[in-house]
Design a protein that fits this description.
The protein is α+β, with helices and mostly antiparallel strands. Helix content is about 45%, strand content about 15%. The protein has a 4-stranded antiparallel beta sheet with strand order 1-2-4-3, sandwiched between helices. The chain starts with a helix and ends with a helix.
Length: about 200
């Protein structure tokens, strides 16, 4: 299947078949794909937590607003977190990067205020989200990106240390009756002339 075909068929799953689970070999591939995600200056300010445990998912479902059923029924939930302390990032991650990357950070980013740097770090994690959703679709795994979660409660339940939850993704296999799938509800996108510009 071409990437264009994948883009046409991929959708945000609203209802999962809880009896279908992703096999361990596939999960290991997804972990490696996330590890290889792109980020600006190869900064990698992230941590990815894969959750399969039923009891942990139940706890997370309680603090996931309208996404509770997805968290419970999906095969796995993947939590995307960003490094919490800017100095910690600078001491650990930057020291591993090529000199040019460090120079860019020190010249362009370090002089900004902490909130701006944290926004930049979070943007890198969002890059990995797009990479991950595309990978799942290419492997015929359904997914649901979820910002509608109580991040601080996720941190508490998962005992995050040095990282802060940004969002989560439920992954698994759709329920055959999921009304959001393109065969039942056509995808709605803006017309090309409204979003694509050529100069």
């Amino acid at each position: 299947m071409s990437f264009l075909d994948i883009a046409k068929s991929r959708y945000t799953t609203k209802k999962y078949d809880s009896s279908l689970k992703i096999d361990n070999a596939t999960i290991e591939k997804l972990k490696e794909i996330l590890r290889l995600s792109p980020s600006s200056i190869n900064s990698q300010p992230w941590k990815f937590t894969f959750i399969f445990d039923t009891e942990t998912k139940k706890e997370l479902a309680k603090v996931s607003y309208n996404n509770g059923s997805k968290v419970n029924d999906a095969s796995h939930v993947v939590v995307f977190s960003v490094v919490e302390d800017v100095k910690d990032f600078e001491e650990k991650n930057l020291s591993l990067l090529p000199e040019k990357a460090g120079l860019y950070y020190n010249r362009v980013l370090k002089s900004r205020n902490e909130a701006e740097i944290k926004t930049w770090l979070a943007c890198q994690v969002y890059l990995s989200l797009g990479f991950f959703l595309s990978a799942c679709a290419s492997m015929e795994i359904d997914s649901t990106p979820m910002e509608g979660i109580q991040s601080e409660e996720y941190d508490r339940i998962l005992q995050q240390d040095g990282y802060k939850t940004l969002f989560a993704v439920a992954i698994g296999y759709r329920d055959k009756e999921d009304a959001n799938q393109p065969s039942l509800t056509p995808k709605l996108r803006l017309d090309p002339e409204n979003v694509i510009r050529s100069i």
